[in-house]
Specification:
The complex is a heterodimer of chains A (about 325) and B (about 525). By secondary structure, chain A is an all-alpha fold. Chain A is built from 16 helices and no strands. In chain A, helix 3 crosses helix 16, helix 4 crosses helix 16 and helix 13 runs antiparallel to helix 16. Chain B is an alpha+beta fold and about 525 residues long. In chain B, helix 5 runs antiparallel to helix 6, helix 7 packs across helix 8 and helix 8 packs parallel to helix 9. The radius of gyration of chain B is 30 Å and the shape is globular. Classes of the chains: A mainly alpha (about 325), B alpha+beta (about 525).
Chain lengths: ~325, ~525
């Protein structure tokens, strides 16, 4: 009885402390002998849990919960909250409507941005990284030019680019010289040229990450291998395609898969170029943003429609990404 | 044919460090020459300048009389074997060997009698055999450990090679005016004239301010003029005489396959043809590197310490393989190593280098018997030559304590009665510092039995039994003296012994310059 009374009288902090030191006490007879290689498993566990708690909590709340919730929202009616497929019907109508076909236009533009990234920006970055790696004449200046977009503020870059493509800007003048007709308000103020102009901006500012990654991978290629190829008569193009590319394939494949995950989220800085979407520049990600937040921009605040849209594109995109991964894994990585 | 000439070659890096100073060597056709020296002596740099992987700062490099300074590495007809093998890691062995063959165009004879029934029959048979070989190759890619498959495959290729030999005997090569060679010679003459004009511009601009430096451009122009004359003579001959005609083209898949299999067979690589370098051992990778060089049939082989990464036993084995390859292929070979044993066993001639300078060039025996200076004497020969510093006076060499020592280790004094054959050459060194050198195998040692014997009494610090040989280590005035004796000498660690030098086997070097006194 006295023991029970003694136990109850111990403060909470002491009981917690004893909980973690209990094993040591039993082994060594005193908690002061707990220092050394034998640590309480409980203490180790507590350390790991404490370290991982915040990232896991963050993931649970801001990814898992949100994504699960959005799946539920996709199947709920906007007004009544009843389970329904109406959001998917609405999505299909918006996609296929001949008039005001916003999702269709957004999808088209998104695929243009995505295609440009995969088919233009990535290969160009690879070639640029190769020439920087080979230290061509002026490579230091080129390196600065290609890395500047990552350093300068996007707003400043967009403002400068807008000036360049304005009717009085030098890009417009050069294009006029080559016989192209510049729209009255400028390249950004016409349905036929606005998206293309923003795509060009994205290409010019999109090299940095890829160039950095590819340059780093190329630096690992043994110099003797390249010298041996040079002695055997290998030119620059063949060296790039038959030696460098296979050796840095894991880096390229990783970057390709990473880019593929942006299949339906690819976009440019639409908000800075064409906030009101007056010139058919909208992309899916911008459409989603506008639907939720842009009540002044024509948005409806319809979370359910947006969730349904996201779910549809996820179901389409997921197998494509997995297929890409499967195909890139077919190529064995090389040890060197 | 490939006679190489390096004339006054210097290499200065952009940071101002000079790695090679005034390198002059003539290398004959089919010669196996070894550049040997300690790390950092400039041997690899010189090799890389020959390959074209480094630019030559000043001086000239010729192959068969043709100036090669500004010729691209791929156009020099040179194959190189690197220390780290430099295999393409993503290619199989087969693809590694094929890569160079795929890239270049080679002259292939034009035959006139391809419709001969016998030739047609043999060619058809070879095509069928090649198809069979390809079938075996596809299976072999999957089952590389199947010995039966390997044997069957080998038999097919053996038959193909036999048929090819028969075909070579039957073919009749076309003869006529060789337009391709005429064009090539004309272009070469134009290029050389351009080089002369360029040099003359430099001479005219700088001759007043830098007369000495412009001399080499004048010499270069003279050499280029000689080269132009040779090419013009050849051009004249080609224009007026009919010669066997060749077509410069890429090899066909069949031709490449034959060359690869021939090379693989010669260095025992058939079994590994479809493996990647990561799945090979060090020795196998080195053979692939050699095979890759052989398959190109170059005029010059360059080897940059190819055996450094191999274990001792494999090194000995691969060394003999390299010599056999050299004899079979017949290409001029420049071999770089820091191992004097490799140099001595493999070379027709050795170039000993130190700190960017050539110390001596000569046959292995010449370097061993007649070293030019102390460095060459110490570098060549294993174990290394023993040295004792001292002064010469009245026909007697008197040893001095080794520099840096406060107290003598071993004998505290040493005197050596110089043989009469050396006295004449040492006369100018009366009272001056000289260095006595003697090889371990030229020293005799007898165990001290209590009775006084001729020679110098030393105490054996350490002995090593190496089978038949006994290495005895002693100290004289702090200088380590190694004696190579026979194992039945009976001398052990701590024993006293009398050492004598063979009369005609001692060397003397100038105490200041370390040059050999002759």
């Amino acid at each position: 009885m006295e023991k029970d009374i003694a136990k109850k009288k111990k403060p909470l902090w002491r009981r917690i402390r004893n909980f973690f030191y209990e094993k040591d006490r039993k082994v060594f007879g005193s908690r002061h002998l707990a220092a050394g290689p034998v640590l309480s498993k409980r203490r180790t566990s507590l350390f790991i849990v404490a370290l991982l708690f915040i990232p896991i909590a963050h993931w649970l709340v801001f990814w898992l919960y949100i994504n699960i919730n959005s799946i539920f929202l996709a199947f709920q009616d906007f007004r009544t909250g009843e389970a329904t497929f109406v959001n998917f019907q609405l999505f299909w109508e918006k996609l296929t409507s001949p008039v005001g076909n916003e999702i269709g236009i957004a999808l088209r533009n998104t695929l243009i941005y995505f295609g440009t990234t995969v088919l233009v920006t990535m290969p160009l970055s690879f070639v640029i990284a190769y020439f920087l790696y080979k230290k061509i004449l002026g490579h230091r200046i080129f390196r600065i030019i290609f890395y500047l977009p990552a350093i300068i503020s996007g707003v400043a870059l967009v403002a400068a680019f807008k000036e360049m493509v304005a009717p009085y800007g030098f890009i417009s003048k050069i294009l006029e010289f080559f016989g192209m007709e510049i729209p009255e308000g400028g390249l950004l103020y016409d349905n036929t040229t606005a998206t293309g102009t923003i795509v060009v901006y994205c290409i010019l500012t999109g090299f940095t990450t890829n160039v950095l990654l590819f340059s780093g991978a190329m630096a690992r290629v043994p110099q003797e291998v390249l010298e041996s190829a040079r002695l055997e008569g290998c030119g620059s193009f063949r060296e790039l395609v038959e030696i460098i590319f296979p050796l840095i394939w894991p880096t390229f494949a990783t970057q390709l898969i990473f880019t593929m995950t942006g299949l339906f989220t690819a976009s440019g800085p639409i908000m800075l170029f064409d906030k009101m979407n007056n010139y058919e520049t909208i992309t899916i990600s911008y459409w989603i943003y506008r639907e939720i937040y842009g009540t002044g921009l024509g948005g409806t605040g319809n979370y359910n429609l947006v969730s349904a849209t996201g779910l549809v594109f996820t179901l389409i995109g997921f197998p494509i990404i997995m297929l890409t991964r499967f195909l890139t894994d077919k190529v064995e990585p090389v040890e060197y | 044919m490939a006679n190489l000439k390096l004339k006054g070659v210097n290499k200065v890096y952009p940071n101002g460090v000079q790695a090679v100073f005034d390198f002059n060597v003539d290398i004959k056709d089919k010669e196996f020459i070894v550049f040997v020296g300690p790390s950092g002596c400039g041997k690899s740099t010189t090799l890389r300048m020959v390959a074209g992987l480094e630019t030559i700062t000043s001086g000239e490099f010729y192959i068969d009389g043709q100036l090669m300074n500004s010729v691209e590495p791929k156009d020099r007809n040179i194959a190189m074997v690197f220390q780290n093998y430099a295999l393409y890691p993503h290619f199989t062995v087969y693809e590694n060997l094929r890569f160079a063959l795929k890239l270049r165009k080679v002259p292939r004879p034009i035959y006139t009698n391809l419709e001969d029934p016998e030739i047609v029959a043999l060619t058809k048979e070879n095509q069928e055999l090649f198809a069979t070989a390809n079938k075996y190759n596809r299976q072999f890619k999957k089952k590389q450990y199947d010995d039966n498959l390997l044997i069957e495959r080998r038999e097919v290729y053996k038959k193909i090679f036999e048929n090819e030999e028969k075909l070579q005997g039957l073919y009749v090569q076309a003869v006529g005016i060789d337009e391709y060679s005429i064009n090539k010679a004309t272009k070469l003459i134009a290029k050389l004239k351009k080089d002369i004009a360029h040099n003359e511009k430099i001479i005219s601009r700088y001759v007043e301010d830098y007369p000495e430096e412009t001399k080499r451009f004048v010499e270069s122009n003279e050499n280029i003029a000689k080269q132009i004359k040779n090419v013009e003579e050849k051009l004249e001959y080609l224009k007026t005489h009919e010669v066997p005609l060749n077509q410069v083209r890429h090899l066909t898949k069949y031709e490449m396959d034959l060359e690869i299999n021939k090379a693989a067979d010669s260095i025992d690589l058939e079994r590994y043809l479809y493996r990647k370098p990561a799945a090979l051992s060090g020795g196998q990778r080195q053979r692939v590197a050699l095979g890759r060089a052989i398959v190109r049939k170059p005029a010059v082989f360059l080897m940059d310490e190819p055996l450094s990464n191999l274990d001792a036993k494999l090194r000995v084995q691969t060394r003999s393989e390299i010599i056999k390859i050299h004899e079979r292929v017949g290409a001029t070979t420049i071999y770089v190593t820091h191992d004097q044993t490799e140099a001595m066993t493999m070379a027709d001639r050795i170039v000993v280098m130190k700190d960017g300078y050539i110390q001596q060039v000569g046959a292995p025996k010449e370097l061993f018997k007649d070293p030019a200076n102390k460095f060459v004497a110490s570098f060549i020969g294993s174990p290394a030559m023993n040295f004792i510093s001292g002064t010469y006076s009245n026909g007697v060499f008197k040893g001095e304590m080794k520099e840096g020592l406060v107290e003598a280790v071993g004998n505290e004094s040493f005197e050596y009665e110089v043989p009469s054959a050396y006295k004449a050459m040492l006369t100018p060194y009366e009272g001056k510092k000289v260095i006595l050198g003697v090889r371990p195998e030229d020293i005799e040692i007898k165990k001290a039995t209590g009775k006084k014997s001729g020679g110098t009494l030393v105490n054996c610090d350490y002995v090593e039994l190496l089978g038949y040989d006994l290495m005895v280590y002693a100290y004289i005035l702090g200088n380590k003296v190694v004696v190579k004796s026979e194992e039945n000498t009976g001398i052990a660690m701590g024993d006293d012994g009398y050492i004598t030098f063979k009369e005609d086997a001692v060397y003397f070097f100038d105490g200041e310059t370390e040059q050999r006194i002759r």
